[in-house]
Amino acid sequence: MGAPHPKFDKMQEETVQPQDADNAAKPLEQQLAEALARIEQQRDQMMRVLADAENARKRYQAEAANAQKYALERFAEELLPVMDSLGAALKTRDVSGIELTLRQLKSALDKASVREIDPKAGERFDPHRHQAMAAVEADSEPNTVVAVMQKGYSLHDRVLRPALVTVSKAVEKSERNPISDTDLD
Fold first, then answer.
1. Domain 115-172 CATH superfamily
2. How far is CA 103 from the centre of its chain?
3. Closest Cα partner for 165 from 139, 130, 137?
4. pLDDT level of residue 163 (50, 70, 90 thresholds)
């Protein structure tokens, strides 16, 4: 694939510990030329390593962009038969075709790990999964679901849309008679 990785520990030893015995016999110009050659070789190795790192970074960025771009591809492929069935059911105005389409849609959502949030009456209100649209006085325990206005959906453990619910609140007990004539003017 690429050039072998440089051994930095060896290069450091060469630059830190010059060999005085060999250098004493050589003229200064030759020693300078050899040092410059070693520097150029090390610079070349460093540039290759930097280029390899930059190429790897660009490759990973491209892979991440493609993964994000085509993440919904399988889900979209699962929805195409649903679209076909819905179109055919609307042309024939067949109720059983619409029911079949709904089952196909639920199956496609299930394969994509999209789950319904459909709380039952009496279930404890969960602000992370439910959105209270109204609070009504009810005989049930306060902060429990009374009715579901619209189902919610989650993807894995993330809520896509909370369930819209009506919750119960405590019944206010009034000491006074609401049909009293004492408040009349």
1. Head domain of nucleotide exchange factor GrpE (2.30.22.10)
2. 27
3. 130
4. very high
137-155: average pLDDT: 91
pTM over 0.70: no
What is the Cα–Cα distance from 79 to 111, expressed in whole angstroms? 11
pLDDT(86) > 60: yes
Q: Where are the domains of the chain?
A: 8-69, 115-172
Edge-to-edge order in the sheet of strand 114-117: 114-117, 152-155, 158-161
- Cβ burial of 166 (10 Å; 0-12, 13-18, 19+) is middle
Residues 6+ apart with CB under 8 A from 169: 135, 136, 137, 138, 142, 143
pLDDT given at position 70: 78
Q: Please say if the pLDDT value at position 101 is more than 90.
A: no
**Is residue 149 within 8 Å of 166, Cβ to Cβ?**
yes
Report the alpha-carbon distance of residue 69 to residue 40 in Å, rounded. Answer: 43
For the chain, give percent helix, strand, coil, nearest 5. Answer: 50, 20, 30
Place of tokens 């038969």: 81
